[in-house]
Structures are given as structure tokens and as C-alpha cells.
């Protein structure tokens, strides 16, 4: 289970938005549907997920109906706040969404579409573990309107998968990708690098295996040790080593080189796609600060600068909704300084970068120093954009600090 929820102001029991909130109908709207179930908790994961023994008072088979109740609440709240907008993107994340019957995921998507509408050409993604993907599952998802499957490959090397507590075999990924393609779905695969015991040669093998799948999109994330996880405890006890920053940097540079040579282009620090049309529009909605409603326990939402988050446990989530109450646990409205910091933090991560004009006047003069340090692309800066170089992507946090502190 994830750490504690952030502090914030109390959320209204009916879920209503502040009367002075101005919802812009021109801002795209997305939906995130959280499915908090996993068969096994991976040692590195701090997401809000639960194995069957941790549910205590919540039933997995009731989950779709419970989440649909929140969809109905959201439709009422947003209708009261202004014109409803069709969903530009929908993302089923987790946990493992495909632990639910595919028909349950289809019901949830149908309910959201009935409530908000689905924009023409909308992107609808479902995350999946390789060992939960079958031809029948993906056909049901495709028939329901899902357009994209994001498969948690993580590695192609058995001892690395074991270090991450992943339960699938490498060959499961190949069959999952083939099933998704046969159903007409776009495919993304997720990789993690820097696991205990993983070598640069291991990582190269995983990259080669991912490229051999001929997917449309590849994500590659450095392993981060999160407090409270099994892996953090193992490191604290000296059972496994802390990830090596220099090795992870080498792994990132290798990924960028191999993926670039294969025709993939980076568009966010940890994401590469074969073309602009194959980028994850849902994740770009987060980085660009669009509006979204997060459904499910622990899910976060953002509408017109207002943020809120739901209670974490599935039982508490279900109890709130059964009582006719919003599941929101807290809410906040970031001040101008916090909003500016977040905007720089998010936009600097993506290829298009942030406009120099959007920086505080006192920070614009620092761009020249970042160019001199090889962190920002000089040609882009001439065009008025702060775009990270490869070195800048490796030191993105330092760039953000320079542009905001």
C-alpha cells in the first residue's frame, strides 16, 4: 500500500466544486480509472494496491459497480460546475486492471462514456501484466472501445524479474503483445532499469527484446527506492545494494541510443514513441496540466487548478459511495508559487519544453548558463523554448531547481 495521503483542506461530502471555480470548456478532459488489485505485491511498488488478503471489507467482484457510482457522482458535480466535456483520453491503471474480468472494464468504460461522452479519436488505454492477457481478454477490450494496451514487461532477464518480484515469464510478453496486435490495439511496453544485480548487458538484452516486439511505444523508468516498500527494507538491512546512480545513467544513455537507432523518438524523459501519433496522450495530459477526474480509491483529480484525492482503502471508498457521499478525502488549491514550480517541473520533462516567456523574469537569464553547461538545447532556446539535451534529461532536477529557486 502507498504512503499517507497528502494534507489538504476537508473535501465537501457531496463532492461539489467551489462556486468560484471557472471550468474552461476548451481545456481537454481525461479520466483515470484506478483498479487497485494485484496478485502479488512487487517489492519496489508503493502504488495504492491490495492483494486479496489485504482487502478486508471490500469485494473485488463488486468493484466495477462501486466505481460506476463515483462516475455518476462526477457527472452531476461537473454538470453543476459548467458544461460537461467529452473524454479525450481514458486510462485504466493500477494495480492490475486485467485482474478484473474484461467485461467489468467494459462496463466501467461504457458508464464513463454515457456520463461524459468520448471525443472523436479518443485514446483509451488499459494497463496489463503479461500473464493476465489472453486473446479473449483483448478482443473484449477492443470491442468495448479500448484502443491501446500498456504491458508491464519490466525486463527480459529472469533474474532481474525475480529481483523485482515480477511473476511473469519473459515469453508471456511476446504472447501478450501478439494478442493485442491481433485485436487491433496499439501496444506500449514498460521497462524498469537499475534493479539489484542488473548489469548493463542485462539491460541491453531487455532493450533488444523490447525492440523485437515491434511495439508502438516504449517506457523506460529508473528504479526508485520508495520508503515503506519491501525493497527499501532489504536495502536498509544490507540484503541488496542501493541502485548505482552512475550505472543507471549509463543505462539511460544506452536506452536512448538503442531506441533512437530503431526509429523511436523521446518525447518525455522516460518515454519514446515511433511517431507523434503514437505518444501517450493521456500522460501528456498530465504533463501539460489538463483537467482529469481520477476514479477509485486513492485516485487524484485536477479540474481548473483544484486538486483532490480519494480515500485510500477500497472498503472506505465503497462505504462512502454507498452512503451517497463523495469518496474525496482532501482538496487543495496550489498558490501561484507552487503552481509555477509544478508547471516548470512538468513541462521541462517533455520534448516541447517550456517557453522562456513562461519563466519568471528573474529566471530567464539563467537559461544561458544552462546552455553553457550542456543541459539546454541552444537552437531551441533561440526559438524561445527551454528543451533538455540528453545531459539535461539526466540532470532534469538540477535544471528545474535553477529555473525556480
UniProtKB/TrEMBL annotation:
The keyword Signal does not apply. GO terms for molecular function: 4 iron, 4 sulfur cluster binding; coproporphyrinogen oxidase activity; metal ion binding. CDD domains: Radical_SAM (cd01335). Keywords: 4Fe-4S, Chaperone, Cytoplasm, Heme, Iron, Iron-sulfur, Metal-binding, S-adenosyl-L-methionine. One of its GO terms (biological process) is porphyrin-containing compound biosynthetic process. GO terms for cellular component: cytoplasm. Its main location: cytoplasm. InterPro entries: Aldolase_TIM, Coproporphyrinogen-III_oxidase, Elp3/MiaA/NifB-like_rSAM, HemW-like, rSAM, rSAM_sf. Belongs to the anaerobic coproporphyrinogen-III oxidase family. HemW subfamily. NCBIfam families: hemN_rel. This is Heme chaperone HemW.
